[in-house]
From TrEMBL:
The protein's name in its UniProt record: Transposase
InterPro entries noted in UniProt: Rpn/YhgA-like_nuclease
One function term, GO molecular function aspect: double-stranded DNA endonuclease activity
Chain segments carrying region Disordered: 1-21
PANTHER family tied to this protein: INACTIVE RECOMBINATION-PROMOTING NUCLEASE-LIKE PROTEIN RPNE-RELATED (PTHR34611:SF2), PTHR34611
Bias type Polar residues, positions: 1-19
Gene Ontology terms describing biological process: DNA recombination
Organism: Candidatus Kentrum sp. FM
Domain of life, per lineage: Bacteria
Amino acid sequence: YANLNESEQAQYEQRLQQSSHKEVIMGPVQQAVEKSMQQGIEQGREEGKQEKAIEIARTLLNKGMDIGEVSEISRLSEQEIRKLSVH
């Protein structure tokens, strides 16, 4: 910085200010993007758990197990299991 002439110093300071403005603007944007990605990952995990529970419930129903027992094992509601047994 000390080796720069007055014009170069002014340009340098202007660039610093511009990059600071970008950081001020992009910081919250980046945080929002990261939060959205994390929420998407979590939602995907929950959907995967639900799909697995449905798969287990269907298998147990096909083996003739009682809806109450299937509900207890799969942790799906009896109403959800009844919908599965109709399909």
